[in-house]
Amino acid sequence: MPIEGRSPRDCAEQFRAHMAELLSRTIAPTVPLLLYEGGRETRFGMSFRQGRKLAAISLATRYGRLFFHLAQLVEAEKVAKRYELRTLSYWYRLQATAELQDEALLRWEYDRAQDPRQPGPPRHHLHAPTAIKWGSHSLDLNQIHTPSGWVTIEELLRFLIVELGVTPATPEWPRVVAASEDVFFRDFSGKRAVKLPRG
User: Fold this and answer.
1) Global pTM?
2) Distance between CA atoms of 189 and 109, rounded to whole angstroms?
3) How far is CA 7 from CA 36, 74, 92, 140, in A?
4) Mean pLDDT value of segment 159-177
5) Is 194 among the domain residues?
6) At what angle do helices 8-24 and 173-183 cross, to 10 degrees?
7) pLDDT (tens digit, 9 = 90+) per residue, 103-159?
8) Would residue 193 count as lying in a domain?
9) Has residue 196 been placed in a domain?
10) What pLDDT, in 10s, does the model give residues 36-92?
Protein backbone atom coordinates (compact mmCIF):
# COMPACT_ATOMS: atom_id res chain seq x y z
CA MET A 1 0.00 0.00 0.00
CA PRO A 2 1.20 3.57 -0.57
CA ILE A 3 2.55 5.89 2.11
CA GLU A 4 -0.35 7.44 4.04
CA GLY A 5 -0.46 10.63 6.08
CA ARG A 6 -2.63 13.38 7.50
CA SER A 7 -1.42 15.90 4.92
CA PRO A 8 0.40 15.91 1.58
CA ARG A 9 3.57 17.21 3.26
CA ASP A 10 3.38 14.51 5.95
CA CYS A 11 3.29 11.80 3.24
CA ALA A 12 6.15 13.34 1.27
CA GLU A 13 8.26 13.86 4.40
CA GLN A 14 7.88 10.19 5.39
CA PHE A 15 9.28 9.19 2.02
CA ARG A 16 12.07 11.80 2.10
CA ALA A 17 13.14 10.69 5.60
CA HIS A 18 13.28 7.05 4.50
CA MET A 19 15.30 7.87 1.38
CA ALA A 20 17.62 10.26 3.25
CA GLU A 21 18.47 7.63 5.85
CA LEU A 22 19.12 5.00 3.17
CA LEU A 23 21.37 7.31 1.15
CA SER A 24 23.26 8.57 4.20
CA ARG A 25 24.00 4.97 5.23
CA THR A 26 25.21 3.92 1.79
CA ILE A 27 26.68 6.50 -0.62
CA ALA A 28 25.86 10.02 0.63
CA PRO A 29 26.64 10.38 4.35
CA THR A 30 27.01 14.17 4.20
CA VAL A 31 24.75 15.35 1.36
CA PRO A 32 21.21 16.44 2.26
CA LEU A 33 18.20 15.10 0.41
CA LEU A 34 15.65 17.89 0.53
CA LEU A 35 11.97 18.27 -0.11
CA TYR A 36 10.60 21.25 -2.02
CA GLU A 37 7.24 22.47 -3.33
CA GLY A 38 6.40 20.84 -6.63
CA GLY A 39 4.10 23.45 -8.16
CA ARG A 40 0.93 22.77 -6.18
CA GLU A 41 0.09 22.05 -2.55
CA THR A 42 -0.20 18.28 -3.04
CA ARG A 43 3.00 17.90 -5.09
CA PHE A 44 6.59 17.73 -3.86
CA GLY A 45 9.98 17.26 -5.40
CA MET A 46 12.86 15.56 -3.68
CA SER A 47 16.51 15.79 -4.69
CA PHE A 48 20.06 16.40 -3.61
CA ARG A 49 20.33 20.16 -3.23
CA GLN A 50 22.88 22.80 -2.38
CA GLY A 51 20.90 25.79 -1.19
CA ARG A 52 18.12 26.26 -3.73
CA LYS A 53 20.01 24.56 -6.52
CA LEU A 54 19.68 20.93 -7.61
CA ALA A 55 22.96 19.12 -7.07
CA ALA A 56 24.82 15.96 -8.01
CA ILE A 57 26.96 14.11 -5.50
CA SER A 58 30.54 13.20 -6.26
CA LEU A 59 31.39 9.48 -6.26
CA ALA A 60 34.81 7.87 -6.42
CA THR A 61 34.44 4.79 -8.64
CA ARG A 62 36.86 2.24 -10.07
CA TYR A 63 36.44 4.14 -13.36
CA GLY A 64 37.29 7.54 -11.90
CA ARG A 65 35.17 10.32 -10.42
CA LEU A 66 31.49 10.33 -11.43
CA PHE A 67 28.52 12.39 -10.29
CA PHE A 68 25.13 11.02 -9.30
CA HIS A 69 21.88 12.97 -9.19
CA LEU A 70 18.45 11.80 -8.21
CA ALA A 71 15.13 13.57 -8.22
CA GLN A 72 11.59 12.37 -7.67
CA LEU A 73 8.29 14.14 -8.08
CA VAL A 74 5.53 12.80 -5.82
CA GLU A 75 1.90 13.71 -5.29
CA ALA A 76 -0.43 13.03 -2.38
CA GLU A 77 -3.97 12.09 -3.37
CA LYS A 78 -6.87 12.48 -0.95
CA VAL A 79 -8.42 9.12 -0.07
CA ALA A 80 -11.21 9.34 2.51
CA LYS A 81 -9.79 11.46 5.36
CA ARG A 82 -6.14 10.75 4.61
CA TYR A 83 -3.64 11.23 1.81
CA GLU A 84 -1.75 8.60 -0.16
CA LEU A 85 1.56 9.27 -1.87
CA ARG A 86 2.23 8.35 -5.51
CA THR A 87 5.39 8.75 -7.57
CA LEU A 88 4.74 10.87 -10.64
CA SER A 89 8.26 10.72 -12.04
CA TYR A 90 11.85 10.01 -11.20
CA TRP A 91 15.20 10.88 -12.74
CA TYR A 92 18.45 9.17 -11.80
CA ARG A 93 21.54 10.51 -13.56
CA LEU A 94 25.13 9.31 -13.62
CA GLN A 95 27.45 11.77 -15.30
CA ALA A 96 31.06 12.84 -15.80
CA THR A 97 30.50 16.39 -14.47
CA ALA A 98 28.59 17.97 -11.60
CA GLU A 99 26.65 20.27 -13.95
CA LEU A 100 23.14 18.90 -14.40
CA GLN A 101 22.66 20.54 -17.78
CA ASP A 102 25.58 18.45 -19.10
CA GLU A 103 24.90 15.17 -20.83
CA ALA A 104 24.42 12.15 -18.56
CA LEU A 105 26.36 8.94 -19.13
CA LEU A 106 23.32 6.98 -17.97
CA ARG A 107 19.90 8.25 -17.02
CA TRP A 108 16.98 6.25 -15.78
CA GLU A 109 13.60 7.94 -15.98
CA TYR A 110 9.96 7.25 -15.19
CA ASP A 111 6.94 9.31 -16.23
CA ARG A 112 3.58 8.23 -14.84
CA ALA A 113 1.77 10.63 -17.19
CA GLN A 114 2.75 8.45 -20.15
CA ASP A 115 -0.35 6.30 -20.51
CA PRO A 116 0.74 2.74 -21.46
CA ARG A 117 -2.60 2.23 -23.24
CA GLN A 118 -1.79 5.04 -25.69
CA PRO A 119 0.89 5.21 -28.40
CA GLY A 120 4.08 6.55 -26.91
CA PRO A 121 7.42 5.60 -25.38
CA PRO A 122 7.77 3.27 -22.38
CA ARG A 123 7.08 4.96 -19.04
CA HIS A 124 10.19 3.38 -17.48
CA HIS A 125 13.23 3.93 -19.66
CA LEU A 126 16.99 4.33 -19.92
CA HIS A 127 19.11 6.74 -21.98
CA ALA A 128 22.83 6.63 -22.74
CA PRO A 129 25.00 8.78 -25.05
CA THR A 130 25.99 5.94 -27.31
CA ALA A 131 24.81 4.31 -30.48
CA ILE A 132 24.48 0.71 -31.55
CA LYS A 133 25.74 0.39 -35.10
CA TRP A 134 25.09 -2.37 -37.58
CA GLY A 135 25.84 -2.05 -41.27
CA SER A 136 24.86 1.45 -42.36
CA HIS A 137 22.37 1.82 -39.49
CA SER A 138 22.75 3.41 -36.07
CA LEU A 139 20.44 3.31 -33.07
CA ASP A 140 21.10 6.35 -30.80
CA LEU A 141 20.34 5.31 -27.20
CA ASN A 142 20.22 8.95 -26.11
CA GLN A 143 17.37 9.72 -28.47
CA ILE A 144 15.15 6.70 -27.87
CA HIS A 145 13.42 5.48 -24.71
CA THR A 146 14.94 2.05 -24.06
CA PRO A 147 12.54 0.18 -21.73
CA SER A 148 14.02 -0.53 -18.32
CA GLY A 149 11.21 -1.55 -16.01
CA TRP A 150 10.76 0.10 -12.62
CA VAL A 151 14.20 0.96 -11.15
CA THR A 152 14.27 1.31 -7.38
CA ILE A 153 16.89 3.39 -5.61
CA GLU A 154 18.00 0.21 -3.85
CA GLU A 155 18.86 -1.43 -7.19
CA LEU A 156 20.78 1.68 -8.22
CA LEU A 157 22.74 1.61 -4.96
CA ARG A 158 23.68 -2.02 -5.65
CA PHE A 159 24.83 -1.00 -9.13
CA LEU A 160 26.92 1.90 -7.82
CA ILE A 161 28.58 -0.13 -5.07
CA VAL A 162 29.01 -3.53 -6.73
CA GLU A 163 29.48 -2.67 -10.40
CA LEU A 164 31.14 0.75 -10.18
CA GLY A 165 33.08 0.16 -6.98
CA VAL A 166 31.73 3.08 -4.93
CA THR A 167 32.89 2.64 -1.34
CA PRO A 168 29.79 2.33 0.86
CA ALA A 169 29.46 4.26 4.11
CA THR A 170 29.19 0.99 6.05
CA PRO A 171 30.21 -2.63 5.46
CA GLU A 172 26.64 -3.46 6.49
CA TRP A 173 25.31 -1.86 3.30
CA PRO A 174 23.73 -5.10 1.91
CA ARG A 175 21.59 -5.40 5.05
CA VAL A 176 20.75 -1.66 4.97
CA VAL A 177 19.67 -1.85 1.32
CA ALA A 178 17.67 -5.07 1.82
CA ALA A 179 15.88 -3.61 4.86
CA SER A 180 15.02 -0.47 2.87
CA GLU A 181 13.68 -2.59 0.04
CA ASP A 182 11.53 -4.56 2.50
CA VAL A 183 10.05 -1.30 3.82
CA PHE A 184 9.46 -0.01 0.29
CA PHE A 185 7.60 -3.09 -0.88
CA ARG A 186 5.76 -3.74 2.39
CA ASP A 187 4.83 -0.19 3.46
CA PHE A 188 5.24 2.20 0.53
CA SER A 189 4.17 0.37 -2.59
CA GLY A 190 1.70 -2.01 -4.10
CA LYS A 191 4.52 -3.57 -6.10
CA ARG A 192 5.75 -7.03 -5.23
CA ALA A 193 8.99 -7.66 -3.46
CA VAL A 194 11.65 -9.96 -4.80
CA LYS A 195 11.99 -12.86 -2.38
CA LEU A 196 15.65 -13.28 -1.51
CA PRO A 197 17.05 -16.29 0.33
CA ARG A 198 17.71 -15.68 4.02
CA GLY A 199 21.21 -16.25 5.22
Assistant:
1) 0.87
2) 18
3) 15, 13, 27, 43
4) 96
5) no
6) 160
7) 999 999 998 888 778 888 888 899 999 999 989 999 889 888 888 888 999 999 999
8) no
9) no
10) 887 788 999 999 988 778 899 999 999 999 999 999 999 999 998 899 999 999 999
Task: Count Cα atoms within 13 angstroms, Cβ side, for 27.
Answer: 28
Residue 176 structural domain: 4-188
Predicted local confidence at residue 199, as pLDDT: 46
Which of 56, 76, 57, 103 is CA-nearest to residue 3?
76
Question: Quick one: CA torsion of 41, 46, 48, 52, rounded to 10 degrees?
Answer: -10
Q: Rounded distance, CA 66 to CA 104, Å?
A: 10
